[in-house]
Amino acid sequence: MRDDLGALGVVEKDSPFPFPIKRVYFLYDVPADAVRGSHAHKALHQLIIPIAGSFRVALDDGRTRSDFLLSSPDQGLTVPPGYWRTLHDFTAGSAALVLASEEYDPTDYIRDYDAFVAWASRG
Ligand code: TYD
User: What positions does the domain Sugar 3,4-ketoisomerase QdtA cupin occupy (predicted)?
Assistant: First the structure.
């Protein structure tokens, strides 16, 4: 919603959404040279929203890599399970809001790239 006083974004529990939201977390104060992520999830769905500044998200399904610039709070990126993701090139003062389909579960992470490629090509 936008008016003369600015813009306001809302997500409600029963908003039409590709997945039920069980967790919200946010990244901020990320140094410009930092690369965050560098892992994949086996089951987690996420929506990443750049609520301030901009950053890039690289997604890799084990075969193809795509790189997205997130630079507007009205345009988020949905990341389904099974993508190796890196978040990089954060501008000063930028922040990411992440809506996630599951509570935090360290066993859902794949943190080794070769293990991810083997998992992604499991057939
Ligand atoms: P991680 O998911 O690796 O962050 P990023 O992908 O942004 O680099 O998480 C960093 C640390 O924070 C790790 O020790 C796990 C912890 N963490 C939680 O405890 N709860 C959470 O919901 C998240 C996302 C991370």
Answer: 2-118
